[in-house]
Write a structure and sequence with these properties.
Rossmann fold, 7 strands, 5 helices, alpha/beta, single chain, seven-stranded mixed sheet, 18% strand
């Protein structure tokens, strides 16, 4: 029988924290609806659903491993940018791969991801811009608990943002009490 407890990573935290619609709404003012988005860490598919509700075109597939070479050629040929909430336990691998590939991207991650010698070296080499929400994101968890114990930002690369640091307020209230299916 499969356990209902989320898989834990370092510090007793889980990678099973999913993006609420509220987080997507912070990024939307910086996007072009003509661009095709690839959610390369598909998870439950909610991110794709939220963007589609706002009129964006999104591709995503939970069976494709972004970190393995050769499995995503079709997605690379089709998409204009990558937008995802990567598993935080392997965020360095996602960042490194995305930066080296050179595609525009936005990754929703803890603001603490600005630190770390390896990440700082990557950001210095490739550049990074941030979309910084005015409050913490209340992620969706499998046990429906509150998970806003850290502040999150959208780490962006090659997205032609107006500034390197973009402080934003949520345009309209969004129901943050969503449930994982």
């Amino acid at each position: 029988m499969k356990s209902k407890k989320p898989k834990l990573m370092m510090g007793g935290h889980t990678d099973e924290i999913y993006t609420p619609k509220e987080a997507v709404m912070y990024l939307i003012p910086f996007l072009n609806k003509e661009d095709l988005i690839w959610d390369c860490a598909f998870g439950t598919g909610k991110l794709k659903e939220y963007f589609e509700e706002e009129g964006f075109k999104v591709i995503g597939n939970k069976d494709i491993d972004f970190l393995k070479d050769g499995q995503h050629t079709k997605e690379f040929g089709m998409m204009d940018l990558i937008i995802t909430n990567p598993p935080y336990s392997i965020k360095d691998k996602f960042l490194e791969k995305a930066l080296k590939l050179g595609f525009p991207f936005a990754f929703l991650m803890p603001i603490t991801a600005l630190g770390g010698q390896k990440r700082i070296k990557l950001f210095h080499q490739f550049g990074i811009q941030l979309v910084i929400p005015d409050k913490r994101i209340n992620y969706i968890t499998p046990n429906h608990g509150k998970s806003a114990w850290f502040h999150s930002v959208w780490f962006c690369h090659r997205m032609n943002l107006p500034r390197d640091l973009n402080f934003v307020k949520l345009p309209t209230p969004v129901n943050a009490k969503e449930k994982v299916e």
